[in-house]
Design goal:
Blueprint (H helix, E strand, L loop, with lengths): L2 E5 L2 E4 L3 E5 L4 H13 L2 E3 L8 E5 L4 E4 L3 H8 L4 H6 L3
Parallel strand pairs: 4-6
Antiparallel strand pairs: 1-2, 3-5, 5-6
Length: 88
């Protein structure tokens, strides 16, 4: 098990993640609302705009302020330094 930083000191287990998607589409917005109503939404964006929606195998959905590309780089094991080079 490897823990991945999803922003602001929040960590998730890489083995529990099913997918990371952008929150822009209507189906994803509906999914977020449904999960919120069931009490399975975890907002780890600290009040900032949500840039990634992480779907976990437990049915939980985690919102992050980091982009899907940056999170993908972290899952691939690239260093923090390499992550930010691509986002300048």
């Amino acid at each position: 098990m490897k823990l991945i930083n999803i922003g602001f000191g929040n960590l998730i287990s890489d083995s529990r993640v099913l997918t990371i998607v952008s929150p822009e589409s209507a189906p994803i917005k509906r999914m977020i609302q449904d999960v919120r109503e069931r009490g399975l939404l975890i907002d780890a964006s600290f009040g900032r705009s949500t840039r990634s929606v992480i779907v976990m195998d437990s049915g939980h959905v985690v919102l992050s302020a980091l982009s899907p590309e940056l999170l993908s780089a972290r899952f691939d094991g690239k260093s923090e330094q390499e992550d930010y080079k691509g986002n300048e």
